[in-house]
């Protein structure tokens, strides 16, 4: 009997140990984090503080909530050229991480080519199985579902979206005029200009009181600022269902002749071809110019507080876009599509060994909790709920570590940068917190471009290849010739010959391709 009891005890101990080991093993399995690899551009506001997304408070919190460990691979997002080069190197390697953030509309041949090349995978089944939050959102927003799918309805990314609709959406307007109204008042100008004639009068008045450079613009801003005054545009647009391109229209000649006049008379900065963000800021901060153009946060939001510290009399405001007539809006002024190539969206690569985990990670941003995290950070740390409104705390506004507003936001959230999520307008309301910027948002929205904007159409691989060849020649030549027209190197009288050459390059064929893309998009 004693022997039997001893055997039973031994067996119990052995089995207990085995069972405990099994439980421990299962607990370990549950606790183990899923490992993913993730390629993404690194925004300068982040790289100025840390060298890796995993070091940001946002991604630390996201990984904790999703029980995921992420190894990041980065390329600088300082400019599009560097980012594109880094992306091309990644694609050429054939060694893809689980997730890739990129402007997939810019992929050679478009998103369909990225699928055909087996760089990324179609997501329809993935959404249905593993991504309930974005699936619900797209079911409720069929217009946006159309934007992020190919012609046959194939989803290819978790998108970066500027809000949920075009109505009352200040997220679509983020840059505009910057006027030194204290200088305008000194020059006898009582309101910011609304038409080309009013602009010319104001710039001459500023020149008359000794302002060295009345209007200082970077090259990529010149057309954006001045062309709306002539209902001119430098890209494809849609009018009454017909696709057009403003480069070859008569209004373009009017815009170029006017801009050449400003340049010739010293009203437009004669260094505009070489001005970058840094030199632009130097001219503004040293009161060398009377007007310029910039994004809100890095423009008025940065310059005005800095200048008022040393001279409280300095005042800046924005203005609505120019128009041919003061009593109506222009057809064209800067605004974004809800979904466009303005920011990287996330796709799952064909090399991913854990599609489910990648999808669940990306889908989290489209949940209610994820939406708050990605736009406002961590409740009780970077924001508090005040009557249902997520209000930023001093961790953002008066950061104890000396981070600027932009840096603090980039460390704790992604709303001020971009990525796979839906931007919340309430973030911008607080980011543009000074009254001058709150007013600016409303002014920038005073355009009719929403009626003409080209939606994010997609092309077949063959169409995209042909279009790329045509538009590479067209845009290279247009860039060169428009600069020569403005600087006077070539007479505006040569405009007709210039248009003829654009047609020889195939711009009319490009318009026909875009028309086909648009028609298919509308039929989806």
From TrEMBL:
Belongs to the bacterial solute-binding protein 1 family. SUPFAM superfamilies: Periplasmic binding protein-like II (SSF53850). Residues 1-20 form the signal peptide. Pfam families: SBP_bac_1. Keywords: Signal. The keyword NAD does not apply. It is found in: Periplasm. This is Extracellular solute-binding protein. It comes from the Bacteria. Gene3D superfamilies: Periplasmic binding protein-like II.
């Amino acid at each position: 009997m004693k022997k039997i009891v001893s055997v039973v005890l031994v067996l119990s101990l052995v089995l207990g140990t085995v069972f405990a080991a099994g439980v421990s093993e299962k607990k370990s399995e549950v606790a183990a984090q899923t490992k993913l690899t993730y390629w993404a551009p690194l925004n300068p506001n982040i790289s100025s503080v840390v060298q890796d997304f995993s070091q940001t408070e946002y991604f630390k919190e996201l990984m904790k909530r999703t029980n995921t460990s992420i190894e990041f691979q980065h390329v600088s997002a300082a400019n599009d050229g560097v980012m594109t080069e880094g992306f091309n190197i990644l694609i050429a390697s054939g060694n893809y991480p689980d997730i890739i953030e990129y402007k997939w509309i810019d992929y050679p041949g478009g998103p369909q080519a990225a699928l055909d090349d087996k760089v990324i995978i179609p997501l329809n089944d993935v959404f249905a199985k593993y991504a309930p939050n974005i699936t619900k959102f797209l079911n409720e927003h069929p217009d946006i579902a159309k934007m992020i799918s190919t012609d046959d309805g194939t989803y290819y990314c978790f998108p970066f979206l500027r809000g949920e609709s075009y109505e009352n959406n200040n997220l679509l307007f983020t840059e505009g005029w910057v006027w030194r109204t204290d200088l305008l008042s000194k020059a006898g100008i009582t309101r910011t200009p609304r038409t080309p004639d009013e602009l010319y009068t104001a710039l001459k008045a500023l020149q008359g009181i000794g302002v060295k450079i009345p209007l200082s613009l970077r090259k990529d801003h010149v057309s954006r600022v001045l062309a709306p005054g002539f209902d001119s545009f430098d890209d494809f647009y849609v009018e009454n269902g017909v696709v057009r391109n403003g480069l070859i229209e008569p209004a373009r000649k009017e815009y170029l002749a006017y801009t050449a006049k400003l340049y010739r008379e010293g009203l437009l900065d004669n260094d505009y071809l070489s001005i970058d963000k840094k030199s632009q800021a130097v001219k503004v901060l040293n009161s060398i110019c009377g007007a310029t153009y910039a994004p809100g946060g890095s423009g008025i939001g940065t310059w005005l507080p800095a200048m008022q510290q040393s001279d409280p009399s300095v005042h800046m405001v924005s203005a609505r876009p120019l128009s041919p007539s003061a009593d109506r809006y222009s057809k064209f002024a800067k605004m974004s599509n809800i979904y466009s190539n303005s920011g990287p969206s996330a796709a799952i690569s064909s090399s991913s060994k854990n599609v489910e985990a990648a999808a669940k990670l990306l889908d989290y941003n489209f949940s209610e909790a994820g939406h708050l995290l990605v736009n406002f950070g961590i409740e009780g740390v970077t924001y508090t709920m005040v009557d249902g409104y997520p209000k930023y705390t001093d961790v953002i506004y008066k950061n104890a570590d000396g981070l600027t507003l932009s840096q603090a936001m980039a460390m704790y959230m992604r709303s001020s940068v971009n990525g796979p999520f839906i931007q919340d307008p309430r973030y911008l309301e607080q980011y543009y917190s000074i009254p001058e910027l709150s007013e600016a948002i409303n002014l920038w929205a005073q355009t009719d471009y929403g009626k003409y904007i080209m939606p994010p159409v997609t092309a077949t691989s063959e169409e995209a290849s042909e279009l790329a060849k045509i538009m590479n020649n067209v845009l290279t030549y247009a860039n060169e010739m428009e600069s020569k027209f403005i600087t006077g190197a070539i007479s505006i009288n040569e405009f007709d010959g210039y248009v003829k050459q654009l047609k020889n390059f195939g711009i009319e064929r490009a318009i026909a391709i875009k028309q086909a893309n648009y028609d298919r998009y509308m039929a989806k």
